Amino acid sequence: TGMTQPSINWHLKENARDHYTSKFSIEELIVRRGQAFTITINGAGQPEQNLIFIAETGPKPSEQAKTQATFGISSTVSKESWSAVLKSTTSNSVSISIYSPANAVIGRYKLIVQNTSSGSSSTANLGTFVLLFNPWSSGDDVFLPNKAECEEYVLEEFGIIFAGNKHHINSFGWNFGQFQGDILNICLSMLDRSLSYYQDPATDVSHRNDPKYVGRVLSAMVNSNDDQGVVLGNWSGSYEGGKNPSSWTGSGEILQNWKKSGFKPVRYGQCWVFAAVLTTVLRCLGIPTRTITNFSSAHDADENLRVDEFYDASGNHLNRGADSIWNFHVWNESWFSRSDLGPSYSGWQVLDATPQEESGGIYRCGPASRNAIKEGDIDLDYDCPFVFAEVNADCLYWNYDTTNGKKTLMFSESTVVGQFISTKAVGRDDRVDVTNDYKYAEGSTKERDVFKKARKKLGLEDKFDPTAPTPKETDQKPDISGKFKVAGTLEVGKDLKLILVLANLTTDDKTVQVNMTACSTVYTRRPVHEIWKDSVSVTLAPQEEKQFPIQILYTEYQEQLTTDNTIQVTALCHVAGGIQVLVQRDIILDNPNIDIQVLGEAELNKEVDVEVIFTNPIDMEVTDCVLQVEGCGLLKGILEINVLPLKAGEKSRTKFQITPSERGLKYLLVNFSCDKFADIKAHEVINVID
Q: Which tens digits make up the pLDDT trace of 205-236?
């Protein structure tokens, strides 16, 4: 009566099609929760009414923890628990439809069958399958009703990330690659390497039915702080011993390197790398996720919704205090419901894997409900005060006397932080502005009311703040105004031409001592190298406006530039008898372009030639030229090609072959680097036909 080892047909193709998992490249059943899948078992013995199934996951499966389910064959599916329904039988095989509940724990399961017929029972292990979140199922916490959004935020392997600064938004492509190779297994091992798992494996696994929990754990695991996670951050401007953060073009190489090295943190990342890797991992597991870029993003280290910046008398931006305003910062939004907070806080949730501040003793951030941020309900879980400050903090600029430590407030701004909050459009490569989803219109009464409400919730509204400016200091109006205007093109390799415009706002003559500096910075506006300084004494007649041309030569900045291509120019104006005026501009220089040409039709499984064209725009030789190419469905892994040095003005054409393995629209990403230009990026969409 005992069964011989039964064989199982997992119906991989049909199940994958029904569960939107066809893009995965591993030979294992991968299905989504809250939806039936079909298997056929041969040789499980008769009658099939006696078959009992056990599905279990994690190191200590238990019914109580919902990591084990035991179920027989019933006449109808149960929505609340695991169940099986008979589809058809033959003399020695039985086809069964297995249904998992919409709140089942996700991860790799073992499926066991028992037959208890005629007094003896026998057990057989049928193998494993992987269960994922299901945004297509209305019972799931991650249910996303719009099918086009499911396609983009779960199934799309290509993305566009926005960067630059508020004056100059640029963007680059990224290969998320969540369905490639071993990525699913790496994502599952990230969960199994988290601190929560080490502390209590059984409890950790039992919480993996909850996207809030999974998102929070992974926001900690993507950075290497605390837990030997995936990526090590580095914002110094010097990246020895690893890869420069701006050189990556996709998450696959990073996740695979982490696994290959025996799970040692991959060097190095900055915010968009953490966000892109988290996007890959969450999309892989089935949680709809996108990257968000916030321009002029505040890092408020002390939870007072205020960022203080300090400048010395020469106009140097001082590295003082933990607060800063980044040119941009990239984080994630994931879509799920918040049963813990109530329906009005469901929808997009902010997660941030960049290690900025600890949350509950660990570098992680979120999920913070985007609606809670907009409404100023920052006492709600998780980490709302930090995210609220990123888009709303007021900014105070201080003159700091390095001889005696005296601070003098120059001016404050309440509308600088949190601008042009951007994400990629659904189904298109365009930028969509979501600033209005984070806050009410700047300057509106509603926006100030929300800010006051948030301050009150943090207990800031009635505290005496010793560093706050006294009314006397702030009432004094500046006598002059200033701004930097750009004259000419902002390109790496060209001289930088600016105009400092100063205007006398009063009806008296004014004498102004202007101290100017320029330094290269990282995108966080952290100064790295001084490039240039100058000072000039100016007399302005009543109401007069004067222009001062400034030129910084390429030869002056070339050695000092970091791969961020960012220069901060500052003029600190000391007005006789008046308050100091700070004029500042962050300038981003564009790299030269690179051109991709596909030579012929791209056909499935057929080689096609691609050519990448680069012209050296400067009048000196460039060396150490390397071209990096990747693209899901177009080539396996990453192609790296060394390109010969290029003389001044010389054009290089680099040819290589790709063999498309998937049909449809695919993206080819290239990254070109040399000693004078870092990480010039381009991408090309290729339509692969049969």
A: 999 999 999 999 999 999 999 889 999 999 99
Strands (E), 443-509: 480-486, 496-504
- Neighbouring-strand partners of residue 146: none
CA 539 from centre of chain: 49
Per DSSP, the three-state class of 3 is coil
Residue labelled with tokens 């659904």: 426
Angle, CA of 639, 641 and 644, to the nearest 5°: 170
Residue 380, phi then psi, degrees to nearest 5? -90, 150
Q: Please report, as a single letter, which amino acid is at residue 282.
A: L
Beta bridge partners of 496: 552
Alpha-carbon distances of 530 from 316, 496, 549, 677, rounded to whole Å: 9, 15, 20, 19
Closest to 387 in 3D by CA, of 447, 298, 293:
298
- Among the listed residues 252, 244, 289, 293, the one whose alpha carbon sits nearest the alpha carbon of residue 270: 244
**Structural tokens at position 620:** 């000196």
In whole angstroms, give the CA distance from residue 213 to residue 141.
12
- State the alpha helices, DSSP H only, in 96-200: 147-150, 183-192, 195-199
Question: Is there a binding annotation on residue 392?
Answer: yes
In 3-state terms the chain splits into helix, strand, coil percentages (rounded to 5) of 20, 40, 40
- At residue 539, φ and ψ (nearest 5 deg) are -115, 130
Residue 184: both structure tokens together: 């699913």
User: What is the DSSP-derived secondary structure letter of residue 594?
Assistant: -
Question: Is 442 assigned to a binding site?
Answer: yes
Q: Is there a cis peptide before residue 311, judged by omega within 30 degrees of 0?
A: no
Q: What is the pLDDT of residue 26?
A: 87
What's the mean pLDDT when you consider all of the chain?
94
Instruction: Specify whether domain 7-132 bears CATH 2.60.40.10.
Output: yes
| C-alpha–C-alpha distance, residues 230 and 269, integer Å | 10
Q: Which helix (H) or strand (E) holds 453?
A: helix 445-457
**Predicted pLDDT of residue 471:** 47
Listed as ranges, residues in the chain with pLDDT below 70 are 1-4, 46, 118-119, 461-475
Q: Which residues contact 440 (CB under 8 A, 6 or more apart)?
A: 374, 446, 447, 450
For the chain, give every domain's residue range: 7-132, 147-458, 477-588, 594-688
CATH number attached to the domain at 477-588:
2.60.40.10
Which numeric CATH code is attached to 594-688? 2.60.40.10
Residues whose CB falls within 8 Å of the CB of residue 17, separated by 6 or more in sequence, listed in order: none
Nearest to 77 by CA among 105, 35, 113: 35
Please give the positions annotated as active site.
Answer: 271, 329, 352
CA distances from 417 to 262, 309, 584, 644 (A): 41, 13, 15, 44
Q: Which of 360, 155, 178 is nearest to 256 (CA)?
A: 178
Query: Any idea which architecture 147-458 has in CATH?
Result: Alpha-Beta Complex (3.90)
